[in-house]
């Protein structure tokens, strides 16, 4: 497959925001530089106007410029592996690849094969979701993980003794990666389905996890609420701290009350109760 490299020149403080926003599009690999990032995308999926629109949502975007160039195909798994380091999240969870040493001192761990799916624990939003999940009791509960990426949140829910877990994503690569990682982490009972909120039926959940982005969250909050049990919890991240008030206000219109708020760098996560 032929790829384009889109080279972004920006303040490095914007790297995480760029990667998070671009990761919700069709970009599949990122490299950080001292003056910005490189993002890689299949040539047929590149739309310059879409990239420009994404950038407009990022604070400080007036200082971002980008250029594209054609590159030959690369071994993307090898590229990711060379940049993947294990991460410990608040002494709650250790996330590593199969080629890293196991966790020490009995720390709970998840082994993630480093591929193109979002959700290795390195990004602030994933870490925030893990921290939120560590607080309530998941034992015997039903869980929906929307936008499951690598499957790390669904797997963690199962480790927290959730009874039934459904992982959903629109991306083929994420579905494949989640399936592999569930087997790798002895969680074969996690159900995996391709799609968006339109695949959700009459099933209701005690917990809904959604680490996506602000626009998707705002659009889908009504559906999340409709499939969340009374007294259930909605945990969301993938948005900037400046979007907290907007999301809280929107959620309140569907009977969701903010229970917990967490912040890390410029990112935020919220837990709502229905």
What does this protein structure show overall?
The chain has 274 residues and is α/β, with parallel strands linked by helices. It has helices at residues 15-23, 48-56, 76-83, 124-133, 152-159, 172-184, 214-226, 244-252, and strands at 3-9, 29-33, 36-42, 65-71, 87-89, 93-96, 109-111, 142-146, 164-169, 191-194, 205-211, 228-240, 257-264, 267-273. The strands form three sheets. A seven-stranded mixed sheet has the order 10-9-8-11-12-14-13, sandwiched between helices. The protein has a four-stranded antiparallel sheet with strand order 2-3-1-4, with helices on one face. The chain has a three-stranded mixed sheet with strand order 5-6-7. Helix 5 (152-159) links the parallel strand 8 (142-146) and strand 9 (164-169). The longest helix has 13 residues, at 172-184. The chain is globular. The N and C termini lie far apart (45 Å).
Spell the H/E element sequence: EHEEHEHEEEHEHEHEEHEHEE
Number of helical regions: 8
Rg, rounded, reads: 18 Å
Q: What level of helicity do the residues show?
A: 25-40%
Amino- and carboxy-terminal Cα gap: 45 Å
| Estimated structural class | alpha/beta
**Count of individual beta strands:** 14
The gross shape turns out to be globular
Low-pLDDT segments:
none
pLDDT averaged residue by residue:
87
Order the strands across the largest sheet as they lie in space. Answer: 10-9-8-11-12-14-13
Most strands sheet? 7 strands, mixed
How large a portion of the residues is in β-strands, by DSSP E?
25-35%
């Amino acid at each position: 497959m032929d790829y384009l490299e889109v080279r972004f020149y920006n303040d490095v403080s914007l790297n995480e925001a760029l990667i998070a926003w671009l990761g919700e599009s069709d970009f599949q690999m990122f490299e950080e530089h001292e003056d910005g990032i490189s993002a890689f995308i299949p040539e047929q999926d590149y739309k310059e106007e879409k990239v420009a629109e994404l950038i407009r949502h990022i604070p400080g975007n007036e200082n971002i410029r980008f250029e594209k160039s054609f590159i030959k195909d690369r071994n993307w798994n090898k590229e990711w592996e060379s940049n993947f380091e294990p991460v410990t999240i608040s002494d709650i969870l250790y996330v590593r690849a199969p080629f890293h040493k196991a966790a020490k001192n009995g720390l709970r761990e998840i082994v993630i094969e480093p591929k193109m799916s979002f959700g290795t624990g390195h990004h602030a939003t994933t870490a925030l979701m893990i921290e939120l999940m560590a607080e309530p009791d998941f034992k015997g509960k039903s869980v929906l993980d929307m936008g499951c990426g690598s499957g790390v949140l669904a797997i963690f829910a199962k480790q927290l003794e959730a009874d039934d877990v459904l992982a959903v994503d629109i991306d083929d690569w994420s579905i494949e990666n989640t399936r592999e990682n569930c087997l790798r982490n002895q969680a074969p009972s996690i159900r995996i389905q391709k799609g968006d909120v339109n695949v959700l039926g009459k099933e209701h959940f005690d917990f809904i996890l959604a680490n996506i982005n602000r626009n998707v969250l705002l659009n889908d909050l009504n559906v999340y609420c409709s499939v969340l049990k009374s007294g259930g919890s909605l945990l969301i991240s993938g948005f900037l701290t400046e979007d907290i008030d907007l999301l809280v206000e929107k959620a309140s219109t569907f009977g969701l009350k903010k229970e917990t708020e967490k912040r890390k760098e410029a990112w935020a996560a919220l837990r709502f109760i229905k």
